[in-house]
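Severity: low
Component: inverse-folding endpoint
Summary: output formatting inconsistent between runs
Steps to reproduce: submit the following structure tokens with default settings.
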């Protein structure tokens, strides 16, 4: 079982630092180390959030492009439907004309 996952390593690192900080000699700079760790953690979260926002923005842009293409396709289908109706009307008129000429 690999123990190299980022959350596990971070928890182990934080726990090791807490254990070290319990010693009186290190307590002076302990809060600075904890702030530094929290800051790096926040930076990583911010990077993840920014990456997710970019991915969502790309997905939205792709969806908008797909909607535009679907609108164009719908317009083409409506035009084709009208053309089929016109041919059908023309065929009906030709049948009526043939019937009248008999």
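Observed output (run 2 of 3):
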């Amino acid at each position: 079982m690999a123990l190299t996952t980022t959350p596990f390593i971070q928890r182990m690192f934080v726990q090791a630092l807490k254990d070290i900080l319990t010693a009186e000699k290190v307590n002076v700079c302990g809060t600075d180390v904890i702030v530094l760790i929290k800051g790096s953690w926040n930076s990583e979260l911010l990077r993840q959030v920014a990456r997710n926002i970019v991915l969502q923005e790309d997905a939205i842009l792709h969806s908008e492009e797909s909607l535009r293409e679907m609108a164009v396709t719908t317009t083409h289908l409506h035009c084709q439907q009208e053309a089929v109706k016109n041919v059908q009307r023309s065929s009906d008129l030709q049948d009526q004309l043939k019937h009248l000429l008999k």
